[in-house]
Amino acid sequence: MAVIKEAKKLSLSYFSKDKIICPVCKKAFSREIMRSGNGRMIAGKLTDELHRNFEPSAKYGRVFPMIYEIGACPNCFSAMYWSDFKEKFQKEDTDILYSKARERKEKVETIFPYFSLKHERTLYDGAAMYYLALLTYDNLGAYMTPTLKKGIISLRLAWLTHDMDLLCSDHNFDIISKVFYSKALFFYQQSLYCETDKTEASSSLGNMGPDIDKNYGWDGVVYLCGLLEYKYGQQDDMQLRMKKLSESKTAIARIFGLGKSSKSKPGPLLEHARDLYDKISKLVADDEF
After folding, report:
1. Model confidence over 13-33: pLDDT tens digits?
2. How far apart are CA 172 and CA 170, in angstroms?
3. Helix (H) or strand (E) run with residue 96 in it
4. Considering the entire predicted model, what is its pTM?
5. How many Å apart are CA 187 and CA 167, to the nearest integer?
6. Torsions phi, psi of 30, nearest 5?
7. What contacts 49, CB < 8 A, 6 or more positions away?
8. Looking at CB atoms within 10 Å, which of 5, 85, 205, 228 has the fewest?
């Protein structure tokens, strides 16, 4: 009996009694929710990528709250943010998603073989669910603002696979992480284009994260476009790279009011934006000589 109580005490998550109905296959499945409190989450520092690391605790070790933000149907392997399961989908989209169920599963298994959707998720399973979500949003129309969602999901996948590399090196998760950073850069930049040409209302997305602890909104998207270009952008065509960095520098200065005495955007985002602005300015200036 003591062993059972201890197992319950150290549980990280539970399955809700309320079932989720998959909008694709119409099957019901349980939602897994992370428990809060009791020292499960010890917030650490915020990185320049606006990623909140959590310190390991004596009871629970290292926890990854982010992995519980995505739901994945174990029947058709459609995955998305939990809130999107309640949205009204266009039939042509659900038809395509249903027809590509096996294809999604097989693609995810190329990186995460033997992942499972039927038990309490691990970091490994959680990352697999995020990849399923990335593939799911590939087949959803503009009404679901998929581009920015794919940017956020790709960035989180880069973080999760980096964590996997730290825990289990020599399995190429460091290389996979770089691939997802490149995808994040592409989708973040595309979300700006979609907003400008009004093909998607990217800025209307309720929570732009990029992590789960704070919503940095559209300002955070603009900042991350510049940061990802600075850290992970291509370097084969340096003229194009400098052009994009100069555009990012201008966008960051405009939205954050850098160089002015304005304090309308205080906090860590402003601090990181100032630091990035200085780094890009130096890089662009050095390239001119």
Report:
1. 999 999 999 999 999 999 999
2. 6
3. helix 91-99
4. 0.92
5. 28
6. -90, 145
7. 155, 159, 210, 224, 227
8. 5
